[in-house]
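Colleagues,

Please find the record for the two-part complex below.
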Amino acid sequence: MKEVKTTLTPHQKKAIRSNLVGYSFILPNLIGYAIFVFIPVIFSFILSVMKWDGSKAPMEFVGLKNFAQIFGDRIFVQSFLHTIQYALLTVFPTLVLSLLLAVLLNHKLKGIAIFRTALYFPYIASIVAVGAVWNMLFQPDFGPINEFLKFIGISKPPRWVVDVKWAMVAISVVSVWKYMGYYMIVYLAALQGISGSLYEAAGIDGANGFQKLRYITIPMLTPTTFFVLIMLTIQCFKVFDLVYVMTGGGPGNATKTLVNYIYEKAFTSWEFGPASAGAIVLFAVVLVITLIQFAGEKKWSKDLM
Amino acid sequence: MNTKTKNLRVPLYLGLIALSLFMLVPFYWMVISSLKLNKDVFSIPMKWWPDTMHWENYKIIWKKLPLVTFFFNTAKLTVITTIIQLCTSCFAAYGFTKTRFKGRDLIFLMYVTTIAVPWQVYMVPQFILVSWLGLNDTHLGLILMQAFSAFGVFLIRQFYISIPDELCEAARIDGLNEYGIFAKIVFPLGKPAMATLTIFTFTNVWNDFMGPLIYLKTKELKTIQLGIRMFISQFGADYAWIMAASVCSLIPVIIVFLSCQKFFVEGVAASGIKG
């Protein structure tokens, strides 16, 4: 350092100092982030073209064999399709319900915060506890949900989490219930940004509440809806905990999802190669969705100009 | 408030009350079941109010499994992870907003590109890496793997950007160095953003299931979420106990949530509106 000092102008010295100060601020986070996030991200691409069981035996380059293996694996294809099924069952109801809740809550009424709290609450409750209670609610023989269905005249209610056809529906119901409070808050923030004068003008023109919702609120919220749609879809593709605690991927493999597949390949059969190939598929899906998001955001920021 | 809203007030209130109650039914069911006898949880016809409150369930569960240890472990993980996350995020956010150095934008771009990568994509190599460091099945491994987040840096950075540079400039002229400006001006001003990040990290770590599931194998190291899973697998038919343990696991998050609601809402809005 001393040698450098003698050959540098004061200006350069100042620049080096300012660089060092800057680095000192970001380094604590950057070092941790690089080791525990950045390197693993790169490593996951490398692993996906390797054969390795995690033992002392060296990795072996196998090219795209892992991908060929998982796409030839019936269980992987099923897991992927189940994930899509889960997304289809979950995204639309969550979107619509969270929007409706937000519209209802967007009134200046006394005590409205209490309702907001109640509706948001499922979101912060742990999935393990929530899964346990919903499993009991869905209990096919004596559970309250089926008791209720029998009460209203459905003599043979679905057997929910133990029924191949209904298990994913049950998981989706819980998911919608748990996450709509979160997206409701996102919508509420956006609703507060819509100018009141629009509604006043519509009121003068004689628009009723439904027309205001249809012709002002929903169009004004389009960018938010798009954002929520993207977030929800990505979230659905990452689902693991809810499935794990409610059905464990069963009955059979009926609710096994993409991340369940990755988890099992990696941590129960120690096949890191195929597991990483599965992870890269997840990455590809999320990447495509994110690119769609960028395209959408560009479009709307242009429209708003 | 115009007359139209006034007319709507009663039905609106009724609708909201009905909706909120409906959303909270699972929690109500959780609590009343935890106060029943195990054999009565599924009694038919369903009882919405137990005849006798079996508070002793809340004593029994602590003897069935080392729940105290699980609670302590979870609290330890949560507090340490939150502190590391908070400190390093604030530090880095200051670096990215108030100082200039070579490669700043490039490094930030690295954060931007990786923030969109879901943890599930790199959890396997991350696990391998942590194992190589000899930290598999330790709390330290679990802490390190989630203590450094791009989300934290983003959230705080967003807030620091809104702090005018003139404020820092003035302090520089007064002779404060960068660390002084950070400690005396920017850091104290960033409290709202820090509160949001604290609450987010706290709930995430407390509720985390998949991380501990992958990393923690020794019983004595497990967290409360894994503990409830153990309860379910070992006492599968003892529904009341499972519900009592679940209620206990929710209490810390409920306390934090109710006392800092404002920041929860702001946090969602902050992460939500950016789109």
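Chain A has two domains: 2-47, 69-304.

Comments are welcome before we finalize the supplementary table.
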